[in-house]
Amino acid sequence: MSMKIHIKNGRLIDPKNKIDRIADVYIAAGKVVSISKAPDAFHANREIDAKNLIVCPGLIDLAARLREPGFEYRATLESEMDAAVAGGVTSLVCPPDTDPVLDEPGLVEMLKHRAKSLNQAHVYPLGALTQKLAGKVLTEMAELHDAGCIGFSHADAPLIDTTLLMRAMEYAATFGFTVWLRPQDFFLAQGGVAHDGEVATRLGLAAIPACAETIALSTILYLMRETGARVHICRLSSRDGVELIRQAKAEGLPVTCDISINHAHLCDRDIGYFDANANLMPPLRDQRDRDALRAALSDGAIDALCSDHTPVDEDAKQVPFAEAETGATGLELLLPLTLKWATEQKVPLLDALAKITSEPACILGLSSGHLDIGQTADVCIFDPAAHWRVEAKALKSQGKNTPFLGYEMLGKVRYTLMAGHGVYEG
Amino acid sequence: MKLPDPEQLTQQLAQAIKPRLRSNTVLVGIHTGGAWIAEKVQQQLGGKLPLGTLDISFYRDDFSRIGLHPQVTPSEIPFEVEDAHVILIDDVLHTGRTIRAAMNELYDYGRPAAIELAVLIDRGGRELPIAADIVGARLDLTEDQNIQVTLDPNNKLTLSLHQR
Amino acid sequence: MTPNPQLTDTGALRHLLTIEGLSAKLIHSILDTAESFVSVGEREVKKVPLLRGKSIFNLFFEASTRTRTTFEIAAKRLSADVVNLNVSASSQSKGETLLDTVDNLSAMGADMFVVRHAQSGAAHFIARHVAPHIHVVNAGDGRHAHPTQGLLDMFTIRRFKKDFTQLRVAVVGDVMHSRVARSEIHALTTLGVPEVRVIAPRTLLPKGVESLGVHVFNDMQAGLKDVDVVMMLRLQNERMSGPFLPSAQEYFKYYGLTADKLKLAKPDAIVMHPGPMNRGVEIDSSVADGGQAVILPQVTFGIAVRMAVMSMLAGV
User: Is the CB of A320 less than 8 angstroms away from the CB of C125?
Assistant: First the structure.
């Protein structure tokens, strides 16, 4: 694409390079060629007036379920990739819990091929850690890595056999692969749908204590010490979990972690009168947990925010709370909810946007997530002052299931560019 | 308009009822005004006649429009209605709907031999084919006028007329 | 967040889903209305024409003969037409969603649904989806609430003890899994009972139960001392031996209400039980059949209370 693009008058925020100022951006042949100063003999094919808008690296979402292969009745690759770029997301990581599970190189290649043909966001699949995610036999991690997996995950499937978990981590460590794990003790969480606390007690909901997370997390951290594996902890939910991560980092363990946009804002009270859209895993915990997560995101104990995008068929939420399918849609809420957190916690935009650009890039070992000269021009241009209401018709995703339904959001994407090519205009 | 004395009317009612008494006569007053009057009539007739009260809240025909009034005093019929000669007593007879409801309720207690109706005031404006056998006084009121019987702290009945 | 579907804009009761959110004033007005209906039950013709022409559908997803029967009697005494639907779990899993079932029945002219379901929140869920003229009465949803039971229990206490603000009340048994317990606790605290106690082993008490406004006792002797009302809870068969309790025998020895333990309460204390009773597990026969038990009056009052609830809802 030999298009020359001039993004003018925008406020450039590039967290990795600590840039936050009004600066023009010049793009040619899909790459950033200059900041502020126009290159010699640069005649733009396209000018984007970014006055009053923010120009930042395309967002990197560490967890987005695309529902393909296998779950097309919930959502399709097309609709979810549309949602991604509408949300300013130019790279996303998808978990392996598709149908069939991403445990074979052929499936990974097919998914990558399908995604690439849509010419929208980059898709980085996580391979399954065990075959069929059954927790019994390791997958061919090296082959899966060659096919394009950037790490190995057990999604939400239980991994009860501690010996197997240890071996899986050792095997991954052999090749330097990162293992992505959501800490949850299978038995303590069994049958639970809400956080074990005053709200679940009042509502009479089967509950999952916070120690289901901390016990599993302790196990993982000890196995890290044993095996030397690099681990990314997915979707932390408790204040005690945060403390364990803090200690582990202080010790120098190669651990990173993320929280979802839902847990950054909501707590168990948001279940309200049994709102099935608040049926999430891990469950929304209490206010103190939520506040600890928000603070840890500010001080860096938690590295990144992700959407944990999980589109669910409407019928699957139109049932009593505990019967509902778990999860919330989120690709289009990642940006505004990051901005909301930043405003409420008084975090500068530079640091806030890092949580969804440079930090995820670092976790993934990608060279993207910033706008250095010579860098591929994956760009997100958004209006930080634009109001919009979260309702079904405002979302491109087929998943309309979010506990933020009816909320007013601040922050809307106006342009998304992939390698200089416009993939979304709003 | 000069209003009649309700205590005097009550005495007139008792005198008019006296010749109609049978061996199986019972008095039933309709809450709240009719109940006060029935009690006074019973006293004036010797204090021995069986006395009951009816609260017609559950038998009103406007339930679906105005909802349920919580019944503060439940109906009390401490005698057999079956084959009784019931003298139904109310304070003001207007549309006739209260009497219709009272008769329906009475029938849920048993089948009376006969029902006679005695009212303190008949203000006209019937919406049902109901008539009183004994009337204390007839008053001609307009739709926007409302007449009320109350019991003062000295246990004396008073009449008041209100304009809406 | 979804709004509270139980009350109308003006604070009138549109559905009865839970005792939470009801004011003491509203609870007392329900009890007052129930008083009138008690006398209807003592007549020859136990009917009033209030709900004539109305269709009440008993939608029971969880089997229950006694609760369904009392609702049926209550509805018939109001002259309503009653339809009983026992929807077993298997017919639900055959494909028809809960909403489809409710929509179909609404189309058949339902004016009111009395719903019992195994999931907490089911009654709220149905109430959010029915047309504005249809009312929902929660006959028990999972562990969450059984508001008519809570109300009839309060009616019973009011009848025997008169003033809530002078009482010590103990709720004994499996609070963790009990919707009856939750409704009772909400009602007692709302009506101003100064001391509400729960007595149970720790495995049967949910996390943060104190936040409901109760004092926790694990020792039944200490917990029963000087109480005016003992409210026993039923222990489900499946809980008697497993991760919660070792055996019914040990439970009875330490948490069962015997005549001896009852002596620790006030001499005029009343004993209540929502039924059905497990004799020899949570309560000894001598107490269940004894002079302090008001278990049978609870059943009678239950009809009057349900008549009151249904007429108050239908009149909105």
Answer: yes
